[in-house]
Amino acid sequence: MSFLDHLEELRWHIIRSFASIFVFAILAFVFKNFVFDVVILGPSRPDFFTNQLLCRISEALNLPVLCINQEQLKFQNIQMSGQFVMHIWVAFITGLVISFPYIFWEFWRFVRPALYENEVKHSRGAIFFASILFSLGILFAYYVITPLSVYFLGNYQVSESVENIINFGSYVSTISSIVLASGVMFELPIFIYFLSKVGLVTAEFLKKYRRHAIVVVLALAAIITPPDMISQIMVCLPLIVLYEAGIVIAKRVEKKKAMA
C-alpha cells in the first residue's frame, strides 16, 4: 500500500473508533440519572461501597478516622449552561471509557499487517490484557483513590470561616482525571511489552533504572492524587507491582527472541 492508502485506512479506523464513542456517549446521555446519581456522585455519598466498608473497619478497629464521606458534600452550578455542558462532557468520557477495548482493537487492526507472522502470534491476547488492565485501573481509581480524594479535598479547610461549596464542574473534572489517568497508567506492562518487542527497552535496562522509575511513579502519584501520603502510597504500590511485572514480561520477550 502507498502512503496515501495507509492514511485512508487509518482514517476509517479513526472514524469507526469515534463512531463507537458516539454511540455509547448517546446511551450515557440518555441514562443521565444512573450516570450522575449512581456513578459520578457515588463516591461522595455515605452509602458508597468503599465508604461503608471503611466505616465498618473503623468500628472494628476503633479508628474513627477511617470512616469517611459520612456527610454529603454540597455542590453548585454557577453557569447558565454549566449543567448541560457537563452532561455532554460526562457522556463523552463515559463513551470513551466503554469503547476503549474496541478502540484498541481498531488500532491493532491497523498495525497488524505490518507485523510478521511470529510477531502476530506472540501478540495474541494483547487486546484482552490491555482491556483488563485498563478496567482494573478504572475500578481501582474509582473505588479506592476517588473516595479518599473526595474526602480529603472536599473537607479540607484553611479556616473554619470558609465553607466548602464545591463547583460541580470541578468535582467531575477531578474524578475524571483521576480515573482516566489511573486507567492509562495500568497499561504499563503493555507499553513495556511492545517497547521490548521493538528493542527499545530490555529487562536489564528496567532493572538498572528501577530507582528512577520509582521516583517517576511517586511524581505521577502526587499529580493524580490529593497531597496526602495514604492516597499516594495506594497509587504507588500497584504501579510498582506493574513495573516489576513489566520486567518479567521483558525477560520473556528476550527469551523468545533468543529461541527464534
TrEMBL record:
Pfam families: TatC. It is a multi-pass membrane protein. This is Sec-independent protein translocase protein TatC. InterPro entries: TatC. It comes from Natronoflexus pectinivorans. The gene is tatC. One of its GO terms (molecular function) is proton motive force dependent protein transmembrane transporter activity. Forms a complex with TatA. One of its GO terms (cellular component) is TAT protein transport complex. The chain crosses the membrane at residues 84-105, 126-145, 165-196, 208-224, 230-250.
